[in-house]
């Protein structure tokens, strides 16, 4: 009987569990060896391993919703949207909106580069996903982990794990995804366009009033955005006030680290073999790529359309920086610009567009929530 | 297997979604312009 109990775990092990151990291992490898978003992928990978350790009679699994630590965490912090909401405070405290305040026209690219969200939503519908699941898949195109998690935890909890893995993996792959799309949609002459940069100083009052104004304006137009936008801007206000350095540092460091730690492993705990190893997961991974490609295309094409009407041309690559993957996308664009012309510096414009993308992605996420709630 | 039944709804969401996102960000654009005009940076 004693031997029976010892062997129960081994006897309960399925091929699905073993495959998920390997997938968890791959995520951990990508995190450690390749440094692909290690803060999320490592906890997600380990959570996947934990949840696939066979459950035996009388011993609740770690992901059991009533008795398992990660199951309780999932029920009380993810399903209630608490952890994703907290992370917005942390993200807001980390963002410096000054590059955007200096060049507010970059907001247009921040909007255009959210096209991938809606195009992917359409694609998911075409492949037979119900509307809310399609929206959750589309939100991978927000290129913003917290927004993807927030929307998916509301609309498609069963797809939270693959959506999170796709969102964070593709964010790390922006340097690989964006350049070929940009090259396909632009000419060499367009990539060499220079943009003037005029140094504009932004007063402290503007930096303080900006988060307050955005919250009120967005809240009035789309009340459902109050959680996302409001908490992000709260974090930013703490940063910009200049009198809450300790709280700002806590939000940027301890809060961000603690929430990320718990978020990652809890999401990973949803990656059971039954939930993850199916055609839906593969399709989500594939459509995540579609989202990022069409985000990039949306920004670039919008810039090209704008150039038909303006005297001072925009470098279309700056449109691609309107994706929310900050600061990676801005660096990619600057690198591409310098490859075409070593003396062309469009980093400040790209950073402005990239910061605009962070606002754009949260607004687009709020809009999706508002349209489908 | 392609399913076209929800495509009109998806196109509607795309139109409303992109339209609303653009509208809100355009409002933010003007809001920033007004703030910069009302509270210019002063050299100390």
TrEMBL record, chain A:
It is a multi-pass membrane protein. It is an enzyme of class 4 (lyase). It comes from the Bacteria. Keywords: Cell membrane, Ion transport, Lyase, Membrane, Sodium, Sodium transport, Translocase, Transmembrane, Transmembrane helix, Transport. InterPro entries: OadB_MmdB (IPR005661). It is found in: Cell membrane. One of its GO terms (cellular component) is plasma membrane. Its main location: membrane. One of its GO terms (molecular function) is lyase activity. Pfam families: OAD_beta (PF03977). GO terms for biological process: sodium ion transport. The chain crosses the membrane at residues 12-32, 39-57, 69-95, 107-129, 165-185, 206-235, 255-277, 289-310, 345-372. The keyword Cell membrane applies. The keyword Ion transport applies. Its EC number is 4.1.1.70. This is Glutaconyl-CoA decarboxylase subunit beta.
UniProtKB/TrEMBL annotation, chain B:
InterPro entries: Na_pump_deCOase. GO terms for biological process: sodium ion export across plasma membrane. Keywords: Cell membrane, Membrane, Transmembrane, Transmembrane helix. This is Uncharacterized protein. GO terms for cellular component: plasma membrane. The chain crosses the membrane at residues 13-36. GO terms for molecular function: sodium ion transmembrane transporter activity. It holds the Pfam family OAD_gamma. It is found in: Cell membrane.
